[in-house]
Write a structure and sequence with these properties.
Elements: E1 4-11, H1 16-30, E2 34-40, E3 48-55, E4 69-74, H2 77-83, E5 87-96, H3 103-106, H4 115-124, E6 128-132, H5 143-154, H6 157-160, H7 163-173, H8 178-190
Parallel strand pairs: 1-4, 4-5, 5-6
Antiparallel strand pairs: 1-3, 2-3
Helix pairs in contact: 1-7, 2-4, 5-8, 7-8
Length: 194
């Protein structure tokens, strides 16, 4: 079975840890060894959040070193740029281009990276980049579930898990909210990364 190291980043409240939890649940259901290490920033909302997942038969510990991730999943544009150093050359880079502007940016004291900056930095390491525009998120869809589905469809995550594996984990996690989450997942499977 393939070993897969996944580095996930975003801001508090976006659902990064939920994505990691769902992947971990899918791994457990398939009998795949999984190590999950979450890190939260100081703020519950808006603070830096990351998760490291190591999946596979020879997995030991969750720590992913720089240049060691097969896949980086990012839910915030600025954080995606910071996370690139963890991606292997030629790895998969799935980015949801949400902008969570810090105070300095809002006050005009600092610049915020543009989509082109992120794509250019990813191209330098030969990353396979899948960019999802938040403006294309269907109304009422959960953006983290949408992003997870796109990652299953368009990255190496799909080599280890089928869409059905992840969808089963979602339904087991939220049996009462299954309809909305399944619709969000279906929309992510249909999304065309740029």
């Amino acid at each position: 079975m393939k070993k897969l190291d996944i580095y996930l980043v975003g801001c508090g409240g976006q659902g990064i840890l939920t994505i990691a939890e769902l992947i971990t649940r899918a791994a457990e259901a398939k009998g795949v060894n999984a190590n999950f290490f979450p890190t939260k920033g100081m703020a519950q909302r808006g603070g830096f959040v990351k998760a490291e997942l190591r999946l596979g038969p020879e997995t030991v510990g969750p720590d992913i070193h720089a240049g060691g991730a097969d896949l980086v999943i990012a839910m915030e544009l600025s954080e995606s740029l910071k996370a690139l150093r963890y991606l292997k050359k030629g790895g998969d880079f799935v980015v949801y281009g949400y902008n969570w502007l810090p105070t300095d940016v809002m006050l005009g004291k600092a610049d915020y990276p543009q989509v082109e900056d992120v794509k250019a930095a990813a191209a330098k390491i030969g990353a396979h980049t899948v960019y999802l525009d938040p403006g294309e998120l269907p109304e009422g869809a959960a953006d983290n579930i949408y992003l997870l589905a796109a990652a299953v469809k368009q990255s190496c995550l799909g080599e280890l898990f089928s869409a059905e594996d992840i969808e089963n984990a979602i339904v087991k996690r939220w049996p009462k909210g299954a309809d909305r989450n399944q619709a969000s997942f279906a929309a992510g499977l249909a999304a065309q990364g740029k």
